[in-house]
Amino acid sequence: MAKHPVPKKRTSRARRDARRSHHALTPPTLVECPECKTRKPPHRVCPECGTYDGKQVVEA
Question: Can you give the pTM of this predicted structure?
Fold first, then answer.
C-alpha cells in the first residue's frame, strides 16, 4: 500500500490565513471613455462608441 505525505503538525490559523492573504479578488480597472464618458477597460476600443485614441475605429 502506497504511503502518502501527511502533515506532522496541524497548520495554525495564522499560518493558514497568511498563506491566503494573496487570494483576494480585485475589481477590474475601468477608465472613462473620453468620447462618450462610459466606463471601459484601459487600452481597449470603447464598446459603446467604437473609438480608440480619439479616432473612430469600429462602427458602433
Answer: 0.62
